[in-house]
Write a structure and sequence with these properties.
The protein contains 8 helices and 8 strands. By secondary structure, it is an alpha/beta fold.
């Protein structure tokens, strides 16, 4: 199959799953088709699907990620011992684990083509990630607590694992509780990663953006928590602070003296 044929196959399979989609017109433009496919994957609830679909989906996603360009941790230079700063798309980073800023449901973002990192990670990992997260949540029996973390496979992403953590949502003045919960997100991820033999971990900017944690304060907490953890545990785990926006890059660059 070509990539175009894979895309068509996946769209047709997902449209056939739901009766309300039977009369939906598929756009002829390839980019619009790609957006439709992502939308269908985003809104799909966690339920079984055939092995043929998964095989095609996996080939499709690996080709999509390859086309975006994969960055290997080995090609990055540390700004200090075991700490890196990297600006880019976290779904294209090859390291042991990346961190997802999840919501309390933990099964991903269901808004079609939403710009949050949760949506992006679930999109390019594939629908297996939602299925695994749903199994975790069913076993747990309640929403994920803020400041905790869970670990899953990464499926089609270049990394090996995804750590999911729910950061605090800021709706008023920033409180000490908010700061403590954000610090707990970083500690929980580091501890869980260590327990699972992770040697390198990339953190996104947890709780900023959609959760409205001030970018500068969030970065200060992130850097201090990681440094405290490494000093306290003498951990050799490599930590990448991943940023996407220029404003976050400048904040982290100054905090880490990465000139």
């Amino acid at each position: 199959m070509t990539q175009e044929q894979r895309q068509t196959f996946l769209i047709d399979e997902l449209l056939c799953e739901e009766p309300q989609y039977k009369n939906m017109a598929v756009p002829k433009n390839l980019e619009e088709q790609k957006r439709l496919l992502r939308s269908l994957m985003n809104v799909r609830r966690a339920k079984k699907i055939g092995s043929d679909f998964l095989a095609v989906q996996d080939e499709y996603l690996k080709e999509e990620i390859s086309a975006k360009g994969v960055t290997d941790l080995e090609d990055l230079s540390p700004v200090s011992d075991g700490i890196y700063l990297w600006q880019g798309d976290i779904t294209t980073l090859r390291c042991d684990a990346i961190v997802n800023a999840a919501n309390a449901g933990l099964t991903g973002c269901y808004a079609p083509c939403h710009g949050c990192i949760d949506n992006c990670i679930h999109t390019y990992a594939g629908i297996q990630l939602r299925l695994e997260c749903a199994r975790i949540m069913k076993k747990q029996g309640h929403e994920e607590e803020t400041g905790k973390a869970k670990i899953t496979s990464a499926y089609n992403l270049p990394c090996k694992y995804v750590l999911h953590t729910v950061g605090p949502i800021i709706s008023g003045p920033l409180t000490q509780t908010d700061k403590d919960l954000l610090a707990s997100c970083y500690r929980s991820c580091l501890e869980l990663a260590e327990q699972n033999g992770v040697r390198s971990i990339a953190f996104c900017c947890i709780s900023t953006g959609e959760f409205h944690f001030p970018n500068d304060k969030a970065a200060e907490i992130a850097v201090q928590t990681v440094k405290d953890y490494k000093e306290r545990t003498n951990s050799s785990m490599e930590v990448i602070f991943n940023v996407f926006k220029d404003i976050d890059y400048e904040i982290y660059r100054k905090l880490l003296n990465a000139d």
